[in-house]
Write a structure and sequence with these properties.
Layout lengths: L5 H12 L6 H4 L1 H9 L10 H10 L3 H40 L7 H7 L16 H25 L11 H31 L7 H10 L6 H25 L5 H64 L2 H27 L4 H9 L20 E16 L1 H7 L2 H21 L2 E7 L2 E6 L8 H23 L4 E15 L8 E3 L1 H11 L6 E4 H6 L2 H6 L1 E3 L4 H5 L4 E4 L48 E2 L3 E2 L16 E2 L13 H23 L5 H10 L21 H8 L6 H22 L5 H31 L14 H15 L1 H20 L18 H14 L7 H22 L1 H4 L7 H4 L5 H55 L4 H8 L8 E14 L12 H23 L5 E7 L2 E6 L37 H29 L6 E14 L5 E5 L1 H11 L5 E5 H9 L4 E9 L3 E8 L12 H14 L1
Parallel strand pairs: 4-6, 15-17
Antiparallel strand pairs: 1-3, 1-4, 2-3, 4-5, 6-8, 7-8, 9-10, 11-12, 12-14, 12-15, 13-14, 15-16, 17-19, 18-19
Organism: Orchesella dallaii
Protein name: adenylate cyclase
Catalytic activity: ATP = 3',5'-cyclic AMP + diphosphate
């Protein structure tokens, strides 16, 4: 397999993705792919209200509940494990201090019991051993431990929650049971110690609040709020009653303590509600991102399947695969080059302008050739059979049918031929007017290639018989078949059409021309490959074709009536009887009928790289004087790659898979601890295994780039964290107001400084969101206008920078966390021995404050959990140092610690254990949140990679498809909602050009395909590639096809989305242009001389450019090729024919006349008719009269040559105009 040069592929990819307006569908590929991967952050997309509305509109609540349930269950599982561990540790601590450490205590406490002194209330003289004080707590925590262990076994596999329809009820029941498992023993323990030991114990109410809001799998937030308030109320009532009954507290002290607890619990509940809201926003956003990527990937994969089906119908697999690989490589090189340029801070405009320039001529810097000729996508095939089929007497059919009906009939007819070709393992190559040719054995070698072609020919004859009977027109099929070796592949870099080349192709074409209607004409070589039954049907015949006689080709005829297959339907389909249009009312006088078929099919011959070419074919192209402007009628599409409504259904089914895929992805989330620590190691291939990517201990990614990407994600919720920190600081301030005297100046100074700092910070994190909300409340603006006020603009930009900068957020978090932690314990410094000691006699105020500070530390959800751990450890260490060393005597005055510790003189440990428990719960919660966030990141990253791969494949396919079909036509055939209709359109103001290289094959005389045949294609490919590159400088010119060494193009078809106004689109044309392909039967086109002049002038300039490029090739290679050009303008019918293999083509008298102008022209000349010359003269183009010549199908005509100078520049009437055009010409090159 020979390859197309990377230079040409790279040029195609670069121009496809540059900002040049040419071929807009290709132009937008890279931008589209990049826009899919770039996340444009909008804070409003992270608002709770917006997300709730989106979920309601998209009907995603049920699926979200499933996702939320799994995540909440993971938190619940983690809590159960943690509670089992914490309860076990606390029991061991109590046993240690009660049984072991008690024996080592100094006896001074027990000496007090025998002395005649007042014994501190927390020292119990009426117990034989300290273990009896700890025993109630040991039993209580033992009950909690066993209960949590049993529940963990029940909920580990999550099957209990998935039992429909009672899953939610089970969730609520288990949540309430867990809450009461902790709440009731805790309250009961406090009552027990007060009643039997006369000690008021500090309950674990704050831990219960954390449990309710952070761990319980409650489906609704209001349920958590009710449970949290209920728990807090129970603890407050219990504490109020006990303090009221206790004689050790004054009434003021009791009220202050209960009020402090009220503030403490309310703050905990408020932060719990806030955390639930933030957690819901994060979870909903992650859910939407996941589902969005899944939806986009499925959509891209569907589009990719559609594109690959279309590609498979146009190009053989072996060709399209190789081309796509080269395109993928070229796009990758282009992106790498662009990245390097951006890294060097080079201007994109400079780069784009370079890409937009013409790569040909002396200023060609875009493509550098390492050798004179580019390589090809060409493959050699041995032992294949080529079938050519032509519709005989096609002219009467064109007279009976209007233009739209004719295109529709051709579409249906060729669709039937395509279905028959597929049935007989034949590959259609190309349509040339009413000629159809195909090959058997091209993609998959088969010994039955000759039989396949013969049977395919029989089916074609049967199909045309249906048309003949339906239309009462004497039409038939003439078929020729030859077998041998050929070359196949693509030429050029734009407007690719798969074709075959070689001497055997020429022989097959001549076999068709010398055949007989209704019969299959085969050569001796083909007969030798036929089976016995078909071979016996062959009847020798004497061919009168000169080319066949010169090559001593023996020929035979097969008649379908003799075929055993004749009694079968030609296409195995229930719709094989093709209903065609009724034509009874149409005649040759109808203004919408096609009346001229006088010009030859615009084919000079299919190139034979052995020194010959297919002889010119007779007259059979379509012409017309007027048709409906826009046609789109229903078509029968047997075996079509697009099945109309079935494709719509398939598309909807594909989109319906999104939720199902999301559902399975949710169920596969490895959220259990076994999955975290063991699942990844046991199953490294598991698609969601996080251990493959993340260290399970440190929770960091193995890849540094992934870790950096994860940490540098923007955090739109940071503004809420700052607001929460300010609220908690105020709550701590209220606690301190209750606890300490007003003369403690350091406390008030730190509080004022902290509040001032946070109040100043609030605008710096909130203005961006507020400004966006004010300016675009309904989300209607693509770009939010910047504030005009300098201060507001500063705050606006600061908000965006803080949101998007990990470093800024981390620094602010560190300052806020350390400030609040310091403020929580700073007042202990001023609790000195002296008159103020009475005001410091309840150190639990400081413990509460420190607990709230720890809560703030963990309320910044998107900060790395290790940093939170470090800050928490630092805060606990500072608090512990204060407790044990700096102000130990303050905490020895404790009332309310654990009786099991207080009874043995270690009440100070109660404060540390209390805070350690809170820190452990929050750390476990935060660690689980970090794990889920990283799991989401891995999932999103994997989906992003899949989406990127699908997008790249989609981009490659789209470039390839739009390189074969015009943009609008490609869109029609890739539209999932299309209904299987054919497409045609009539234009009144289109110019058509044929440009051929006369006697191109005279340069090659050897018929050795493996050597000179490929060299001939190599040279032709270089020439066609240069012509294709010229298209990128002539925006309105559309390449139609290449037939041999003949290049066909048109101007004015308007099938491209250019992205900006072109020269011809500037002309006022009223209703001539309808930007749609839908049926517009009532719209009639009108002749517009100005637009005809513009299209004609544009096409002539393109032809001159082609001549200049060919001259450049001659200079580089030493060859002497010349271009012969014919141009015409007028009415043209353009449309798509072929159902399995859509082909865009044009028909009309203007097409025929352009073909005749070229075939009767002269080398290095552009020949036009007198009408075209008059139009060009209005554009100041000089034309010289050639004279009166005979044109087949037209008779004698006066024609003109467009005057060119020695440099192939168009000559104009006015010198200044000519100089301007010359400058533009050089600039384009």
């Amino acid at each position: 397999m020979e390859r197309l040069s990377v230079d040409n592929i790279s040029f195609l990819a670069r121009n496809s993705m540059s900002l040049s307006p040419k071929r807009a569908s290709q132009v937008s590929l890279l931008a589209e792919a990049q826009s899919d991967s770039v996340h444009h952050l909008d804070d409003r997309n992270w608002s709770w209200e917006y997300l709730r509305n989106r979920f309601r509109i998209d009907d995603l609540e049920e699926l979200y509940d499933r996702y939320f349930l799994r995540i909440q269950n993971s938190y619940f599982n983690v809590y159960l494990v943690m509670q089992v561990i914490l309860s076990a540790l606390y029991i061991m601590i109590l046993l240690y201090f009660s049984l072991v450490h008690d024996n080592l205590l100094d006896t001074k406490y027990y000496e007090l019991c025998g002395a005649n002194v007042t014994v501190p209330k927390h020292i119990r003289c009426d117990v034989e051993h300290a273990v009896y004080l700890a025993l109630p707590e040991i039993i209580t925590h033992g009950i909690i431990l066993i209960s949590c262990a049993i529940m963990y076994l029940l909920v580990y596999n999550e099957t209990l929650f998935r039992r429909e329809p009672h899953g939610r009820k089970i969730q609520i029941a288990l949540s309430v049971f867990t809450c009461f498992t902790v709440l009731l023993p805790d309250v009961g323990l406090s009552i027990f110690y007060y009643v039997y030991i006369d000690v008021i114990r500090t309950p674990l109410a704050f831990q219960t609040i954390i449990l309710i809001y952070f761990f319980l799998p409650l489906p609704k937030k209001y349920q958590a709020v009710i449970l949290g308030l209920f728990s807090s109320t129970v603890h407050l009532i219990t504490s109020g009653i006990l303090h009221k009954l206790d004689g050790g507290y004054t009434e003021g002290d009791a009220v202050r303590r209960v009020f402090a607890e009220l503030i403490f619990y309310l703050c905990g509940n408020a932060v719990g509600v806030y955390s639930q809201l933030m957690n819901e926003v994060t979870i909903r956003r992650a859910f939407m991102d996941r589902r969005g990527y899944i939806k986009s990937t499925i959509k891209k994969n569907y589009e990719k399947d559609q594109e690959e089906q279309l590609l498979a119908s146009i190009l053989p697999d072996h060709i399209s695969t190789l081309v796509k690989e080269e395109l993928r490589s070229a796009i990758g090189e282009y992106e790498e080059e662009s990245a390097k340029q951006q890294a060097r801070k080079r201007s994109n405009v400079s780069d784009i302008s370079t890409l937009g320039r013409s790569p040909g001529g002396p200023q060609n810097h875009g493509v550098k050739h390492k050798k004179p000729f580019s390589e090809l996508f060409i493959e050699r095939h041995e032992n294949v059979s080529i079938i050519f089929a032509d519709i005989v007497n096609f002219t009467p059919l064109t007279v009976k049918l209007r233009a739209d009906e004719l295109v529709e009939t051709l579409n249906e007819l060729f669709g039937k031929f395509d279905a028959a070709a597929t049935k007989h393992n034949c590959t259609r190559i190309k349509l040339l007017g009413d000629c159809y040719y195909a090959v058997s054995g091209l993609q998959n070698q088969t010994p039955d290639h000759a039989s396949n072609c013969v049977l395919f020919g029989f089916d074609m004859i049967e199909i045309i018989k249906e048309v003949r009977d339906a239309l009462k027109v004497d039409i038939n099929m003439r078929i020729g078949i030859h077998s041998g070796n050929i070359l196949s592949g693509l030429l050029g870099i734009y407007g690719w059409q798969f074709d075959i080349y070689g001497k055997n192709v020429t022989i097959s074409n001549h076999m068709e021309q010398s055949g007989q209607p209704g019969k299959v004409h085969v050569t001796k070589q083909t007969k030798e490959f036929l089976g016995t039954e078909l071979a016996n049907m062959c009847k020798p015949t004497k061919s009168k074709d000169k080319y066949l006689e010169e090559n001593s080709i023996e020929t035979f005829l097969l008649t379908p009536a003799m075929s055993p297959q004749n009694c079968q339907s030609p296409v195995s389909s229930p719709t094989s009887k093709m209903p065609l249009h009724s034509v009874g009312s149409h005649d040759g006088e109808d203004e919408d009928s096609l009346t001229d078929l006088g010009a030859p099919r615009y084919v000079r011959g299919i190139t034979n790289f052995s020194g010959s070419a297919i002889t010119p074919r007779r007259n059979n192209s379509i012409a017309g004087t007027g048709t409906a402007d826009l046609i789109r009628k229903k078509s029968i599409r047997v075996g079509s790659f697009v099945a109309g409504s079935s494709d719509v259904l398939r598309y909807r089914e594909m989109m319906g898979q999104v939720n199902e895929t999301m559902k399975h992805a949710i169920d596969d989330m490895p959220l259990r601890k076994f999955d975290v620590y063991c699942g990844g190691r046991k199953d490294h291939e598991h698609k969601n295994s996080i251990n493959v990517h993340v260290n399970p201990i440190l929770m960091n990614f193995d890849e540094l780039t992934s870790e950096i990407h994860y940490q540098t994600q923007p955090d739109p919720l940071f503004k809420y964290y700052v607001g929460c920190a300010l609220f908690v600081l105020l709550c701590i301030g209220i606690l301190q107001v209750i606890a300490v005297p007003q003369q403690h100046s350091i406390l008030w100074f730190i509080l004022a400084a902290g509040c001032t700092f946070l109040l100043i910070l609030i605008p710096f994190v909130w203005v961006g969101y507020l400004w966006t909300q004010i300016k675009d409340p309904h989300r209607e603006l693509d770009v939010i206008p910047l504030p005009q006020n300098r201060l507001v603009r500063l705050l606006f930009h600061s908000s965006n920078r803080i949101t998007g900068s990990c470093l800024r957020r981390t620094l602010l978090y560190f300052v806020i966390a350390m400030l609040i932690s310091f403020f929580a314990i700073i007042d202990v410094i001023e609790c000195d021995t002296g008159s103020e000691m009475d005001d410091c006699k309840s150190p639990w105020y400081y413990t509460y404050s420190c607990a709230l500070a720890i809560l703030v530390t963990y309320s910044f959800f998107r900060i790395h959990f290790l940093l939170k751990v470090i800050i928490c450890i630092v805060a606990l260490a500072g608090y512990s140092l204060t407790i044990f060393f700096y102000r130990k005597y303050v905490f020895e005055l404790n009332r309310g610690g654990s009786p099991g510790l207080s009874g043995v003189g270690h009440d100070v440990f109660s404060h540390v254990i209390y805070l350690l428990g809170i820190g452990a719960m929050l750390h476990v919660m935060d660690r689980q949140m970090e794990y889920i966030n990283r799991l989401d990141f891995i999932w999103k990253k994997r989906l992003t990679e899949e989406h990127k791969e699908a997008t790249l494949t989609h981009a490659v396919n789209t470039v390839l498809i739009h390189n074969i079909l015009p943009t609008q036509i490609a869109k029609i055939y890739l539209d999932p909602n299309r209904t299987g209709e054919s497409h045609s359109r009539t234009y009144q103001n289109v110019s058509v050009m044929f440009a051929s290289i006369p006697k191109f094959m005279d340069f090659f005389s050897d018929d050795d395909l493996s050597r000179n045949g490929i060299r001939g294609l190599d040279v032709l490919n270089q020439i066609i590639s240069e012509f294709d590159k010229a298209l990128f400088n002539h925006l309105d010119v559309e390449k139609i096809k290449v037939i041999g060494s003949t290049y066909m193009a048109a101007c004015g078809l308007e099938v491209q989305e250019t992205g900006r106004l072109s020269a011809t689109s500037m002309i006022p044309v009223d209703s001539e242009y309808i930007p749609s392909w839908k049926n517009q039967d009532g719209v009639r086109t009108s002749v517009n001389p100005i637009k005809r002049q513009k299209t004609l002038h544009t096409l002539v300039k393109f032809a001159a450019d082609m001549m200049l490029r060919l001259q450049s090739i001659n200079s580089d290679t030493g060859l002497d090729f010349q271009l012969r050009v014919g141009v015409s303008t007028g009415l043209v019918v353009a449309g798509v024919v072929g159902s399995q293999k859509p082909l865009y083509d044009t028909w009309g008298d203007s097409v025929n006349l352009a073909s005749r102008m070229e075939s009767n022209g002269s080398p290095n000349k552009i020949q036009v008719s007198a009408y075209c010359a008059s139009l060009l003269s209005q554009a100041h183009v000089r034309c010289e009269q050639r004279g009166n010549i005979f044109v087949k199908g037209k008779g004698n005509m006066i024609t003109y040559y467009v005057m060119l100078d020695d440099s192939f520049r168009i000559m104009y009437d006015y010198e200044e105009f000519e100089e301007s055009e010359a400058e533009n010409h050089c600039t384009d090159l």
